[in-house]
Amino acid sequence: MATPLHEHEDDYLIISAVHNVPWWRRLLGWLVTLAFWCVWFYLWLPLLVSLARLGGMRVPVPGWARGIGWVHSRHLLILYALAAALIGGALLLWAAINLWRFAGVDRRGQIPAVAEREVAQALGIAETELARGRRSKVCIARHQDDGWLESVEVVQPLPPPMASVPEPPPRVG
């Protein structure tokens, strides 16, 4: 039988606290996401209409959109292609400049080690608690309401290190 990660019903992990968000905030988040997806599709509409008309389809253009220039599909496609080419060219130029600039240079320098005492002090917990958490395979970090670390609970410690196993003799034959 698997052991539960927490014994108390009110002892929630910070990762799985979606159920604590009020329904109206979840609904609002869903509606805002839906609205921005609609805007995203709306922004693609001129290109899709232009491609369809270029392919010979008779796509009706709404009256409010006739003055915007959707009717001139070839000109719009040329503008899209020009914008894509300019952006792509700028990115390729940027990549080429960085390749030339950093050729032969190892940019991955050694990161200075930070003492456990400094890390524990920055997190606001005891050094022994931090060391216990680092030596565990699975641990739960509980946070206070303001985001600071409250405690570190070891759920599954690391297995003991394996003794060195001698290599088998080479196979003959």
TrEMBL record:
* Record-annotated membrane-spanning stretches: 27-45, 77-100
* Lineage top rank: taxon: Bacteria
- Name the keywords, alphabetized: Membrane, Transmembrane, Transmembrane helix
GO-annotated biological processes: cell adhesion involved in single-species biofilm formation
The record, for NCBIfam families, names: PGA_PgaD (TIGR03940)
Q: What is this protein called?
A: Hemin storage system protein
